[in-house]
Amino acid sequence: MAIKIAGIMIVLLLAGFPMMVPLLLGAFYGFYDLFSGFSKMEFMVQQMLAGIRPASLIAVPMFILAADIMTRGQSANRLIDLVMKFIGHVKGGLAVSTAAACTLFGAVSGSTQATVVAVGSPLRPRMLKAGYNDSFVLALIINASDIAFLIPPSIGMIIYGVISSTSISELFIAGVGPGLLLLVCFSAYSMIYATVKGVPTEPKATWGERLAAMKMAVWPLGFPVIIVGGIYGGIFSPTEAAAACVLYALILELLVFRSLKFSDIYPIAKSTGLITAVVFILVGAGAAFSWVISFANIPQELLGAVGVDQMGPKGVLAVISIAFFIGCMFVDPIVVILVLVPIFVPVVEAVNLDPVLVGTIITLQVAIGSATPPFGCDIFTAIAVFRRPYMDVIRGIFPFTVILAFVSAALIFFPQIALFLRDLAFR
Length: 427
Prior knowledge:
24 helices
């Protein structure tokens, strides 16, 4: 059955169908084969509805909506300007500022694609004018957006937490360490690149300009305070934090900054609704698919065939990293999480791995895969936004991929990079 399901899904993907179609039909065939006909097909519908029922999933459209409001308003630009004023003058400072801006916006949106648009649109022209090569600029924006998947709030972590029944609050705090490590590594490489290429520095901002930028960014910096402080201060749950972010974004952009009108809210909400519909169809189809393969013991058979169940914890983490990295090179990250997490859950439990560490590594890998050829979704976002050919977009990616691979290996051998803050907050 596993071979037939895989065959159906591959054929449909190659035929150009969107991922929700192969996922739904793969699950449909699994139910048909298991129960020898259509008599139990209502089970499939029940599993799909159960997949989208968890209240924690409400955080997904809320964070998407908050990010969309901020992108169309002034919040994103004010955060970018703050970073520029403080580190734009150092060697490679503009590139470092871009990476830092991606991190800051990631702490607001939780979306790699939103980060590419919000940070890349204003900073790419500025970097090109400063003398940076476009292939480096594009690669930096695409890969620095990966940090948004790790820094809370992370949509990928929410999906993983729902599927694996892992604490989303613990996942959020565990992503901070790897996210900051990535920022440091990207910044170091950017400074080396600027030195080697002789890229001139930006004029140093005065303290008056810095204070003015800080004043302008005070309100947008409230977002990470709400998310991190609110969750770990015990004020509200991740879901409630997402709703609070939407309210805060509306207050800022409508009343404080007055960058949006009330008439702008409907098209923004409509855009969020369309994205959410696609995500929830995928989640529902993924839930049905997961139930089928689990009921048929396919994960155990697959993992047993390759000997994963005989590996130690580090070997299992390495296999998980490779599987998710390769998967996200071809398919949307959410789909990969939905399909692969149920497969690896049994072996993760068998070797007694910390599910929070596993979730952090998975989130990092799907972020890397989404920025890696041939079909990483962030690559195609950059192509659409910046109107550059495919080869131009991917030309400078390799050094960043090496850095990301280094951080991935570091997480496997030094899990406290992710777990230190978690243990400090929850243990």
